[in-house]
Specification:
The chain has 17 helices and no strands. By secondary structure, the chain is mainly alpha-helical. The protein folds into two domains: 166 residues, no CATH class; 167 residues, Farnesyl Diphosphate Synthase (Orthogonal Bundle), CATH 1.10.600.
Length: 340
Amino acid sequence: MSGFEQRARMLAEPACASLSPLQVSCMPMRMILPSGSRADADLERDYAHCQSVQRAYGVSYYFATRFFPPEIRCAVYALYGFVRYPDQWVDCPDENLAVASSLSRVEMGAWVRAQLDSYERDLIRAVCGERVELPSLRAFADVVRRYKIPLRYPLEFLDAMRMDLERARYANFEELQTYTWGSASVVGIMMCYILGATAPKALHYAATMGLAMQLTNFLRDVGEDWQRGRVYLPQDELARFGIRERQIAQGVVDERWRRLMQFQIDRCRALYAQAEQGIGLLPRRVQYPVLLGGRLYARILNAIERNRYDVFRHRARTTYAEKMAIAVRTYAEWRGGRAG
């Protein structure tokens, strides 16, 4: 095993057999919080909480995040923690509300909207230096202040989460991007502020990477989104390939469906390729984990193809062995100047 492979295995290992999950989550924070920050013991725990959230819910993101320099790594954990809570409320409100079974869809939507509104108010309060309840907001507010992230970007993200409560169909790809801008592209832009690359071209490529990842999610989660009452595939593209929503509801995978999915996959891959052109605009020390993160997520598209485009019965995912292989291959290409 090469030195890089050993480091990759050490950094990407999801848990340590000799330590409890709490120890694994909290112990590194004292080392990765930048010296001279205003972080105290409570803030250390807030960052550790965000790390545990990313490790639990964002497996591919977590794998790539571990390759960032230490001081960047905890900021990325906080960014993920910030976006995860609203996303969970919108997608799985019944998991967050004890009396969910007794609420109508309208009442459930009102509860989610109230949560988002409260989250936004607390975000603003936290950025202004007030103490708020959620550890993810306390850590993210520290990141916003430290990296001077314009408040418009997290607010645009929350606006996109509200859109999920108001509309469930998009006429065409251009209309869909009014949603993905806030749900994904601004997340890429916030990453750029953390990484120290805020030139307009760098922000453009980061927004494109966010779009590619969000579209990948849409393809992987067609069945789950249908259960939530949403169809993110553009309506004009469904019609072009002869797909009616009844087919999605029934989970029918035929030649028309396969052609539609391949069309969507090809567009995603083109967006990933475009986004990779911006890797060279990033500081050298953060290029590899960003490149790796994009390639790991793009690999989900291969899994969809491997499953014969059946996203209704088989969840597309990459194995740990695949992640390791991609990490080694991507590192070799990056070091050799053949990527990014």
